[in-house]
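Good day; I would like, with your permission, to put a structural problem before you. A protein sequence and the structure tokens that stand for its backbone fold form the material at issue. The record follows directly beneath this note:
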Amino acid sequence: MKLEGRRFSLVVFALGAVLVWLVVNPESYEAIFTKVENTGAEESVDYSVEAVTETDSTRPRAVDILEKIEVKGRAPKTGYSRDEFYSGWPTVEGCNLRQKILKREFGDTAVLEGCNVVAGEFDEPYTGEHKVFKAREEISKGLQIDHVVALSDAWQKGAQYLDRDVRYAIATDPLNLLAVDAAANEKKSDGDAATWLPANKKFRCQYVARQVSVKYKYTLWVTEAEKEAIGRVLENCPSEPSVGITE
């Protein structure tokens, strides 16, 4: 009876976590199925006259959102662990969120076995390389799901002062998740834009725009060095829209 009671409690907890995630992240849930593309700043292109599409004009520019984010120094890393945010990927519509993100990135090329993505291809954003995977083992070895705003960075820039359910949202919001090259992600570690940017220069505008959007959405702050680094990237693409911000 005690074992059954524990199992029931675990089920209730899991369902509650999913409901919290859906309530906190309604726009992000829709973004699960929005494919990430490698577009952005090109060298030797004057982006000061970049055309703004009708779709982009509905979202505020990343550079404008950046100005609304508080600038402060890092808080201590004391007390940080991933468990302060989450202890595993949630289940969404019966499937693991990691698999949902992989399916989003692979798009129509995704080969599924139930919920699991076992093959597919896509343009990997951090390196710019076209990746082809023929087996689930290759995907597991070659790709990681990156938190665009690293959880350690989030912790030191305000998340430690937020409620636990908000930290859970930061860790599981598809806005903050990308499938990326494992080696590139390990080089990034918990760096911010002042210490690491993707080698793929075409993706840098989207990358920092996504970081800005996550930090604004969850009232995290940036350091002065980080703001300057993001600003330098956005100088090449001043019309780059924010992601998931509709104000």
